[in-house]
Write a structure and sequence with these properties.
Length: 169
Amino acid sequence: MSYPLVLAQYKRDDFGAGNEQELHWALLVITDITRLSGPCFQAVDRTYRDARGKQWSPHSAECSLLSTDKCLGGVQIGSVRQCDLATFSNIVAAHPTIPKSERWNCRDYILEIIEQLLRPRGYLRADLAPRHRVTMADLLPELKQVSWATEDYGGSTDSATPRSSICLE
């Protein structure tokens, strides 16, 4: 059995649908398809008013794409076999947040994980795996599609309608 590995995107204070290149990114292994939930991995920052400035740290926790109105959906970028989940989670959670530039951010962190951890271990879906390097431009068309689909759900009055759209293989 394999679990979907999803790149999830979240609104930021000043950015929502239509600004996908600015949204917050996280990786989610969907172990519960009904709740669209499972282990989630992301980089978070905290800005201090002293010499420390902006500090990044990895964060992992169980989460659901349905638990917040900030989620603008997700796109399956690969899969994780059930028997590999613990190893996968340990490897990804341990990936350090080391900014490579002043503008380094959560999206760069996820792209690093894709290139340094997921591709070499065979976790990426077939159309992403042979590429030399996965970039934001490779992922944005699908992310834009699910972002707008999620926004459309948000206006629904049907309580059975999900709040988060997800594109699975």
